[in-house]
Amino acid sequence: MSLSTSVFNQPGWYTALEQAVTQHSNSSLFQLATVDDAGDPHVRSLIHRAFLVSPSSPSLPLLVTSTDIRTPKIRHIVHANIVELTWWINATLDQFRISGMAYVFAAPEHSISTSRATLGCPGIKALEVAGIDWEAKRRELFDAVSEQMRATWCRPAPGSPLKNGYGEMNDWPARVPKLSEAKTEKEKQLAELALSNYAIIVIEPLRVDWLQMAIKPNRRTFTREGSEWKEEEVVP
Hints:
Layout: E1 2-3, H1 12-23, E2 29-35, E3 41-52, E4 62-68, H2 72-79, E5 82-89, E6 94-105, H3 122-129, H4 134-144, H5 147-151, H6 185-197, E7 198-212, E8 219-223, E9 230-234
């Protein structure tokens, strides 16, 4: 067993994942599993939005995705913020199974939030010590998505019944600009509504199972939790 070493002290799994996502535009989709308050599992696909790495702790990268604050996954994370995701990179034939702590950052007016106690999450703590502004980051990522995506956060809550059938969707907005680019009062109202319903989920990886299928025989490295990542060779 040996310590994982890579450029800037970043763990090998992160170097491989970040490079794959950067070089292959169709590699941003992963599946996230949560549990509800009854202990039942739920899984869905999410789009990766950003990596966050504190300059003082380059070995502790964070993963960022986004969602509608009204979705069930938010309640699940508030209930139990231990999550696991699986990320298949078809271009490189790598699979990453990442478990860790998830944190919800929503609009200030929302009461929904997760405890951000930094015990056991030194990556989150390092960013907060460095003075990260989570609300500014939320707005930055909101501005980075497409107008069509912003429009989805102006619709009724996900999972709501369509009382008048699918035709009801014809009345929903198709595009919503950034708040700073709204030209009419209606566009401003829609942008404010979308931003209010927009939340980011920040995941601090604690354990990673990295399966490299492009190498023969396949390699499977299980990196253990802790501020210093250790790699153990195991049967794939």
